[in-house]
Input
Amino acid sequence: MSAAQTLAGPASHELEARRSRFLARAVHVESPAQALAWLREVADPQATHNCWAYRIGADYRSSDDGEPGGSAGRPILAAIEGQGLDEVMVVVTRWYGGTNLGVGGLVRAYGGAAAECLRTAPRRDIIRYQAFTLACGFELAGAVHGLLDALSARKLDERFDEHGLRLQLRVPDYNVALLASRLRDLSRGAASLHPVETPDP
Output
């Protein structure tokens, strides 16, 4: 199964429709608060409308910012979903050109600007992590460190006590089963790996 994707960097696209100018801008965001903070940063108070949408996992929101209902925010959100992207915020700013576009024209302009912005944007895979604690004897410390490096696990904390090595880890989803299997083989079941219910973001 392919990994979910997000933006590798900011993107923008501009189009004109009957003298109205539409500027779409998109960024990677990791929380609704971050998305709305970026909206405050880029929204042009001199523009006619600053319409937007974000999707972060199962969380999504959109706004028509005064345009007719469903003519701006929903088409922007549909563009995000149509490109199969996650953890993305798109703002489309409109400067009115003097001619009404009608709801259909607005849907095409907002959705089209957002879709083209995202279509040409640089992308990267989203790597999701799970958090674990790992405990093993002193004699396994070197081999365990080598295993963690090979499987792209991140050490959050490391300490030794009278029983051996104690680690807190973040492990990529795609390597969790492999880590557990190799750790069992390496330690003949002596090492322990336990999930942490609320991993660090």
